[in-house]
Amino acid sequence: MCGIVAYCGAPPAVPRLLSGLKRLEYRGYDSVGVGLLHRPDDRLCVHRAAGRLTDLVAALPNSGLEAVTTGIGHTRWATHGQPTAANAHPHQDCTQMIAVVHNGTIDNADEVTDWLDARGHKIATEVDTELIAHLIEEHLLEACDPLRASPVTTTEGPADRVAGPAALERLVAAVAGAVEHLRGSWALAVAMDGVPGIVLARHRSPLLLGVTRTALMAASDALGLGPHVEDVRELRDGDVVALAPNRQVSWYDRGGRAVAPPDPLRLSVRHVDAELGGALDYTSKEIAGQPAAAARILDTVAGRLVGGRLLDDLGLPSTLPVHLLACGSSAYAAAVTARLLTQFAGLRTRVMTASERIASPSDGDVLTVAFSQSGETADVLACLQDGRRGPWLAITNNPGSTLARRCDAVFDIQCGPELAVAATKSFTTQVLAGAALALALSTSRSRRDILAWERVLLAVPDRLAATDALAAPIAAELASTFAGQPGWIFISRGAGVPYAQEGALKLKELAYRWTEALPAGELKHGPIALVTSGVPVVAVTAMPTQRLAVNLREVAARGAQVITVGGRIPDAVLPAVLPAREPPWGPLESVVALQHLAREVAVELGHDVDRPRNLAKSVTVE
After folding, report:
1. Is 50 a residue whose pLDDT tops 60?
2. CA of 304: how far to CAs of 313, 321, 567, in Å?
3. Share of the chain above pLDDT 70, in %
4. Taking each helix axis from N to C terminus, what angle separates 590-604 and 460-482, rounded to the nearest 10 degrees?
5. Please, how many CA atoms are within 13 Å of residue 81, restricted to the half-sphere of its CB?
6. CATH of 3-252, one of 1.10.2020.10, 3.10.450.50, 3.40.50.300, 3.60.20.10
7. Locate the Glutamine amidotransferase type-2 domain: which residues (predicted)?
8. What is the pLDDT of residues 476-527, one digit of tens each?
9. Cα gap 83→100, rounded to integer Å
10. Which residue from 36, 130, 201, 444 could staple onto 68, CB 3.0 to 4.6 Å apart?
11. Which of 22, 506, 508, 617 is catalytic?
């Protein structure tokens, strides 16, 4: 789960690389690095740092950067090796003349390591990306001496052998030869000492090429390209692409043969509002931004739910069984949607964790709804590559993403970029999109019934705003009391269960607390053994409240500290403003209170709520 940028063209390259990395830092922020080619001889310099982009900027030299016209950059979420400067990208070969940045995973890393060891290469890190640099080095050396039998040494530099007008083309051939050894996924950008230009390669990991008036830029998603890109093309699986400083682009297939470039794309890249605007952090800003985000998406569906107009606009059928694919917070939004589709719309529905999806011969034609905030979730994209039957709908916040481009229709949740890692407004708007879709698919329901629930749905922004105002100060008080508790239990009934699960996930993500989330009726089937004196039990109030009240008396009798969220059970501890009659999508407004609780506990414990440890916003490796 890493971010890649590359720049080739007129100076200044370094500010463009750094700004692209800043926009991609949601993909990882435990280490970062750049590889820069300096004029006039394209001398390669690599700079790396553990931590965030600010740590790299502090380590860059104070002079000489104005001469950089070409460079590659990477911000990392560690999958191989500890998040140290030594393991940060770019990675290099034995001679330190080749630099590689990579997003993806090399599945046959052990096999490649053994092969390189036998050829005399010295592997310096724990990171699979380093193997790619050595493979490129090996192919450059073999191109110069096909019968080479002696081990590689740090004095026999491949750059000396490929210098000259054909240097970039030879690097292309070496990259194409290197990837033939690999199994897995990769988006690569490669720079080399003395070689004017950059080589890109891609297999099962997104990589986009953008053209500006003065330069070529590449990035692992459109946000990294910046606002001045005029033309965008997505590399296909197997493509190897050479970028020259004069903005000339050459496309090759995996075998190194010249091919036509793919068609250009029209991407919608939204402006990133990076100002806190008085908020203490991006998490609190985005929690507070949920009423406005909800209003935006609801404005687009108002009046389109009765009579199938929303389905017609999306080009979707109304009678197929529905499969829902998602991971993380999106999976809980999918669970809400599935309950609606089954119980309200009367459709056969199946929810699948994308990483565990197993295609079934009995699937037949289905409508597959894929939930992904970023639209770049690798586990979801892999399901598309496994074969598909029937139409696919993407519910995403990124209409220019890989998922959106590959699906038949897109439901844009329009919540705007989330600069904090933990999902807040994207979860809420995914639920609203799912609710709108379910109401539109409820063809057996009366017009009057659909219109009545549409009015309740359209009032969600006001209830979210009221919950935000009521819950924030009380969540702070609860955090001061319960932050020291190492384990928490979240429960609910019926339509409230996915919200209890989402609340538990938020506490895990932000406060690093162990949580158990389950239907309240399951407590007696084992988990109640965890309840001891003082354990917080957070209950999201939902129908039937009488049965939930019984479960709360059971845990209270064993010493639990009960925190009720909502307003139906008397003396609710953490308020949420809910409709008088529970809607089919359940107590959505309760998530605002749960988000505040998780954030306040994390703040009480001194954690960085915007950049939780070990997490990235977009999970781009399986």
Report:
1. yes
2. 9, 21, 31
3. 92
4. 30
5. 21
6. 3.60.20.10
7. 2-246
8. 999 999 999 999 999 999 999 999 999 999 999 999 999 999 999 999 999 9
9. 17
10. 36
11. 617
Token look-up 């609860």 returns 478
Q: What is the mean pLDDT of the chain?
A: 90
pTM: 0.86
User: 179 Cβ partners below 8 Å, 6+ apart?
Assistant: 132, 135, 186, 188, 201, 203, 240, 254
Tokens at 537, concatenated: 């039990």
- Which CATH architecture is the domain 279-458 placed in? 3-Layer(aba) Sandwich (3.40)
Annotated catalytic, 2?
A: yes
Chain-centroid distance, C-alpha 259: 31
Q: Please give the Cα distance from 104 to 95 (Å, whole number).
A: 24
Residue 426: pLDDT over 80:
yes
Q: Which of 2, 94, 383, 415 is catalytic?
A: 2
pLDDT of res. 164: 45
User: Is the CATH number 3.40.50.10490 carried by domain 462-622?
Assistant: yes
In the chain, CATH 3.40.50.10490 sits at 279-458, 462-622
Phi, psi of 309 (to 5 degrees): -65, -40
